Amino acid sequence: MRSKRARQVGWDIVGLAVFVVMVFPVFWMVSTAFKSNEQIVSLNPTWIPLHPTISHFTSAIHRPYFWADVKNSLIIVCVTVAISIVLSFLAAIALARYRFSGRTLFIVLVIGIQMLPQAGLIIPLYVVLARYHEANVLSGVVITYLTFVLPFCVWTLRGFLLGIPKDLEEAAMVDGSTRVGVFLKILLPLMGPGLVATSVFAFITSWNEYIFARILLNDQAKQTITVWLSYFTGTDRNTDWGALMAASTLTALPVVVFFLLVQRRIAFGLTAGAVRG
Amino acid sequence: MKRRSIVALSLVALVAAAVAATTSASTKRAASNTLTVWLQTDAQSGWPDVVAAANQQFENDNPGWTVNVQYQTWGDHLSKLDSVLAAGGGSGSPDVVEMGNTETTSYMAAGAFANLSSAKSSFANSSSWLSGLAKSGTYGGKLFAVPYYAGSRVITYRTDLFKKAGITKLPNSTAAYAADAAKLFKVDKKKGFSPLYIAGTDWYFAMGFVFDYGGGIATQVSGKWKGLLESKQSIAGLTAYKNFFNAVSRASKTTDESHPNPYDVYAQGQTGSIEGPSWFSCCVGKQYTADTAQFVMPGHVAGTSMPGFLGGSDLAVPVTSGSKTQAIDWIKDFTSTSSEKALQAKGNIPNATNLLGNSVNERAAARSWFVPQAKHWVDVENGNILRNMLAQILTGHLTIKQAAQSADDNIASVLNQP
Amino acid sequence: MSEGTSTATAAGTLLGTSRRRRRVWGRIGRGAVPYSLIAPVVVVVGVILGYPLYWLVKLSTEKYGLFELIRHHGTSIGLANYRSVLHDQVFWHALLRTAVFTVANVGLTMVLGMLVALLLVRLSAWVRILVTSGLVLVWSMPVVVAVQIWYWMSNSENGVLNYVLTKLHFGDYYAHDWYATTFSQLSMVTMLIVWGALPFVVITLYAGLAQVPHDLVEAASVDGAAPWRVFKDITLPILRPILLILTSLSIIWDFGVFTQPYLLIGQAKTVPGNYLMSVYLFEEGYFENNYGRGAAISLLMVVIVAALSIVYVRRMVRIGVEP
């Protein structure tokens, strides 16, 4: 009994060590955001600023277009996540439950897109979107993000779907429900957690995306928060490290909040279905 | 339960999409009679009032027109320009772009900018533009970009440390500076302290020595580019640089001038002086602001100044612009004498010699050097050819002659690409 | 099983459709349904990526620089771009370097991810929540921000890494430049990438581990099997599908990674000697405005990545084919 306790404590200590090592850079970012400029530059690192300053946060928020860009990011990300979940769920159902010619081709398409180096696509993508008057507008960015987020979502949701036994649906069909009815009444509830998990990935990917947002959006008022962040280091002059760290902390907040809200669902969801198959 | 949340999410998506669509629709309506200008963020943080004044002047002279200034970052403004050029224009594409003076050549050679030669005389002080800037805006004898402003490099130093070391007169030659460095070492014995902090691969500083001794980087001989770094004068300059570096700097021999930033080193109290743009004085740390001043880097001949790299920006009109006349008009307003004087008041060097004043920054610009006007020069910079050469020389991996020869070969092969 | 049937019965009752309608639906639906389900995705992807892909292929056979970009017209030069790339020593060195780099990154990510996931199972609840939250915090940082912080921590002037190593008496790391040699540079990049990749891998594997039937593990250890055997014979087979997915995704992502190496090493220190494939693509293709060459390199990269991950991808495609 005692050795079991000791072993448990031992594992916990290892766990804490892992936590400290992993989280340290995040901690460093947040603590730097509260340090004075002298403490930031000094040769002797200040671990925890004893006289924290919020001047960096205020100067970051007062940079032009902060709130406008937050709004843009939120719009783009929410629309992207919503549409991608719906569309990829439908496609995943096709992949997981049907056999049709062209299935392999579709799978190749889904995986192949993820292999494309994004650097090569920037200019032609801009040309295409400009032709459809989708350059310099939020919807153009949404469409671009969908293109890159959909394949991953389809693939992941397929994995979850494969974990739900077909017998459930078959039994429902025998009992007289339509295929559509099966989707809505049986698959959807069971897939809830899986959908949440996939939407988290879509959220994080879209929120943190930089290069396409940068190229596609010309007007500063329309840009996203990650582009706004790049202005801190984009100048030929000095970089305000304190403000940059404060701005980075602010940029990361929505993702953390979103994840913390849904994280209990994920653990349940991943447990429920991901692995089987 | 889940169905309701899916429906709710879809509604949110639809609403958001509608909002996005409305935003785009309204932009299309406002597109006419708007002049789009791309300036760098330096203007946004440094002299937004000068920009506002030029906008006001333009709008007064062109009723019905508004100016839409969008600030860019140095890191990807060229990628954005490339995309706009590839698409042939489109929403938000610029009528005026700010280009760094080392970025213009390949774009001018490719025909990306409108020919402004016929309007040259209408730009203020165009007959006395700074030669370094004017060269960067001219290609094949035609004017494609208008000089905007320049910046030179000066020495920012600790007056208190210099006083403590008994340096009563500022050094007027590199030899005097090296001697002063020995005095500064005695005053501050901290580990890693540099009397003058120079990053090893800071080619903006190092090439000054090459030009000071009468050498050069590259020149065109009957249409073909040839490297000049292995010439006797250039080698003398590089040797002088190596000796000077070893006498005054304890910085890393392989690092560049932004890793770390020299003013950060200064703020940490690890150096007696730093070299760089004059705006470095902004960020020297609260505790040293009172004891900071600047002087012009001396050359190897007593009483002369070291040729400094003249950095700066030009303004060009992309060929994709549909409002070229208005674009030229705006540039006229932004580079007018009053506008340039306002820029000068903010610590920049104005674009014409007749406007030059007596600040340290401007005196340093009196003797300057510029990069070869080659279509592919930017590839030499991106390929870090000069930086590698300096690192090899300072670390001793190659002799100066070998490093210079290798750099010359690389430069020639890059510049002579079709 | 019984639970499932009752749900299905309830579902059927809720909907209560007639048998006749179901038969009709069954005939028409079966054919068109899958296609209409994948149609939206195909349309979105096709419309947006169709032209860029065509452009990439066409461009790879053309001479296309800034001059041609402005005139929207390139000159056809056949396979010259491919020839020039395949004959370029730098290309092969970068390829080899990237292959080694990918193996190191994927290996470290999967091994460390597996170890941390196994650790999570054994932790007390509160420590587990702490570690999971920490992983989420890491996952939520934008890559550019993570690079800034990483550089900030490891810079030679006032980086906290040097300070800590010196204080802990690992040696004198005062002003040690972690970005002086290629090996050191790429090691720092590897650490950054693995650090950023662990959260996703750990959380997914941990969920997978929760699938391993507890009774089987208990029975095995009661029978005297060593923990390693238990892992190898019971846990691993159950985790195989997830491991396949994660490994193949990691290979694809780590092979084409760009932001971390380019920003962390810095443009000034990026030389052919430390090119990774995507950096090579950027520097030799786009930085020099040589879009034709860039397109050729892009397509070559796709082929190479496909070849590297083909084994895993084929296995994944097969899963779920059985009815």
Which terms would index this structure?
heterotrimer, A: 277 residues, mainly alpha, MetI-like fold, 12 helices, flat, disordered C terminus, B: 418 residues, alpha/beta, D-Maltodextrin-Binding Protein, domain 2, five-stranded mixed sheet, three-stranded antiparallel sheet, 17 helices, 44% helix
Can you walk me through this structure?
The complex is a heterotrimer of chains A (277), B (418) and C (323). Chain A has a single domain (56-274), classed as MetI-like fold (Orthogonal Bundle), CATH 1.10.3720. Chain A is built from 12 helices and no strands. Chain A has helices spanning 2-33, 37-41, 55-61, 66-97, 103-115, 122-131, 138-162, 166-174, 179-208, 211-216, 225-230, 241-274. In chain A, helix 4 runs antiparallel to helix 9 (179-208), helix 7 packs across helix 9 and helix 9 runs antiparallel to helix 12 (241-274). With 418 residues, chain B is of the alpha/beta class. Chain B is globular. The termini of chain B are far apart. Chain C contains 14 helices and 2 strands. Chain C starts with a helix and ends in a 5-residue tail after the last helix. Chain C has 323 residues and is mainly α. Chains A and C meet through helix 1, helix 4, helix 5, helix 6 and helix 7 of A and helix 1, helix 2, helix 5, helix 6 and helix 7 of C.
